[in-house]
């Protein structure tokens, strides 16, 4: 045994209990009411919660000159996130496999926490479709599709036929498809009309990604998931309308999990500061935030992710005057667990076990990482 964490409250997804945790070779080797330390190094966790490391199920790492993969994963570790799933776009004509191999080789020496990738095809063809099975066999079980790419540099929108084919192919081999809501075609029409009227600044960006367009996109994705028996996740759910689209799909038997972004839970903590706080989907109202908290408490919303994208001030301001050039995102990677603890647990909105569920256990399950990640039990990774 290499290390013992003594006297803490071990928090699981269902219950909490007092116990010592023994660690050997990076894995949990023993959990008991009393482990005699002998000469083994110990950490005194008296009066502390002992949590499984957070699993951040969606982030964009190294998106600005002010951040690279090393600094991003240091921020994750500082906030108790021990596994990050990064979004990896493939350019036109590129192979998802080749893009993945190159990125892994690039970032592996830089990473301070464990990581995986959502593959995000920016086009759909037979070659891309054939790569889905091999990616799953290599241990990368998840893909992401945007139904609107506004504000997301590098992203493209898969046509409905491509999304259907991706879902169907992923379903054959146990993969998962994340879908971020919207309707790019309708958004383009709205964007053109606003441009003709001289409404081109960041303040008009939310009209292109309204709650109704987000929920319409998620309802469409839900229907496609029902046709393919896919494991699907609605990513970045922003408020009441999107939640209603999800619940409607579930009532029809669709296997559709729901994930929200950290910034959609805390609008009051981020007063309007113009383009510097722009995100995709846009932040909604306080009432929408309360709907999200209620859904978290009721179990209708299963996952909280950071949706971290550390854009520089220069990037944000450079695109502020034109909707087509707006860059969205906030640096939130190290804030997930601290904010869920302070604004969720301490304010009585969730128990410590529910916090573990939404920030660790559930995302680990959906991403195919459980029980190595997402729980403290014998045999699991010692991400504590």
Low-confidence stretches: none
User: What is the average per-residue confidence, as pLDDT, rounded to a whole number?
Assistant: 95
Order of helices and strands: EEEEEEHEHEHEHEHHEHEHHEEHHH
Beta-strand percentage? 15-25%
Provide the helix percentage.
25-40%
Structural class: alpha/beta
Task: Based on Cα principal axes, name the global outline.
Answer: globular
Span of the ends, CA to CA: 16 Å
Task: Quickly count the helices.
Answer: 12
Largest sheet: 5 strands, mixed
Radius of gyration: 21 Å
**Beta strands, count:** 14
Write the layout of secondary structure elements.
Layout: E1 3-11, E2 16-24, E3 27-32, E4 41-44, E5 49-50, E6 54-60, H1 69-78, E7 81-90, H2 96-107, E8 114-121, H3 126-137, E9 142-146, H4 160-172, E10 176-180, H5 184-196, H6 211-228, E11 231-235, H7 240-251, E12 256-261, H8 262-265, H9 286-298, E13 303-305, E14 308-309, H10 313-318, H11 336-345, H12 352-366
Parallel strand pairs: 1-4, 1-5, 6-7, 6-14, 7-8, 9-10, 10-11, 11-12, 12-13
Antiparallel strand pairs: 1-2, 2-3
Helix pairs in contact: 3-4, 4-6, 6-7
Description of the structure:
The chain has helices at residues 69-78, 96-107, 126-137, 160-172, 184-196, 211-228, 240-251, 262-265, 286-298, 313-318, 336-345, 352-366; strands at 3-11, 16-24, 27-32, 41-44, 49-50, 54-60, 81-90, 114-121, 142-146, 176-180, 231-235, 256-261, 303-305, 308-309. The chain has 384 residues and is α/β, with parallel strands linked by helices. The strands form 3 sheets. Strands 1, 2, 3, 4 and 5 form a 5-stranded mixed sheet that branches. It has a 5-stranded parallel sheet with strand order 9-10-11-12-13. A 4-stranded parallel sheet has the order 8-7-6-14. The radius of gyration is 21 Å and the shape is globular. The two termini are 16 Å apart. The model has no long low-confidence stretch (mean pLDDT 95).
């Amino acid at each position: 045994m290499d290390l013992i964490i003594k006297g803490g409250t071990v928090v699981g997804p269902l219950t909490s209990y007092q116990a010592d945790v023994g660690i050997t070779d990076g894995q949990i080797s023993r959990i008991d009411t009393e482990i005699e330390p002998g000469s083994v190094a110990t950490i005194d966790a008296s009066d502390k919660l002992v949590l499984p490391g957070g699993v951040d199920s969606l982030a964009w790492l190294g998106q600005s000159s002010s951040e690279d993969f090393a600094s991003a994963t240091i921020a994750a570790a500082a906030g108790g996130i021990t596994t990050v799933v990064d979004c990896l776009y493939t350019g036109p004509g590129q192979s998802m496999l080749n893009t993945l191999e190159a990125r892994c080789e690039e970032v592996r020496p830089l990473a301070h926490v464990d990581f995986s990738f959502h593959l995000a095809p920016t086009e759909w063809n037979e070659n891309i479709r054939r790569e889905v099975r091999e990616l799953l066999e290599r241990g990368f079980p998840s893909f992401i599709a945007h139904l609107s790419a506004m504000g997301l540099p590098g992203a493209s929108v898969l046509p409905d036929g491509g999304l259907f084919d991706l879902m169907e192919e992923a379903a054959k081999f146990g993969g998962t498809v994340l879908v971020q809501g919207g309707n790019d075609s309708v958004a383009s029409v709205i964007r053109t009309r606003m441009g003709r009227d001289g409404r081109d600044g960041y303040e008009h960006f939310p009209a292109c990604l309204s709650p109704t367009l987000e929920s319409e996109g998620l309802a469409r994705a839900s229907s496609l998931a029902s046709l393919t028996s896919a494991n699907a996740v609605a990513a970045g759910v922003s408020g009441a309308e999107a939640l209603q689209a999800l619940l409607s799909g579930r009532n029809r038997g669709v296997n559709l999990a729901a994930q929200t972004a950290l910034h959609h839970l805390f609008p009051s903590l981020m007063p309007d500061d113009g383009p510097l706080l722009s995100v995709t989907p846009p932040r909604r109202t306080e009432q929408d935030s309360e709907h999200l908290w209620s859904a978290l408490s009721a179990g209708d919303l299963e996952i909280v992710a950071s949706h971290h994208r550390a854009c520089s001030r220069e990037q944000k301001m450079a695109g502020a005057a034109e909707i087509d050039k707006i860059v969205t995102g906030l640096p939130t990677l190290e804030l997930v667990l601290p904010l869920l603890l302070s604004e969720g647990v301490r304010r009585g909105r969730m128990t410590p076990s529910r916090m573990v569920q939404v920030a660790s256990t559930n995302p680990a399950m959906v991403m195919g990482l459980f029980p190595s990640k997402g729980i403290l039990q014998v045999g699991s990774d010692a991400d504590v």
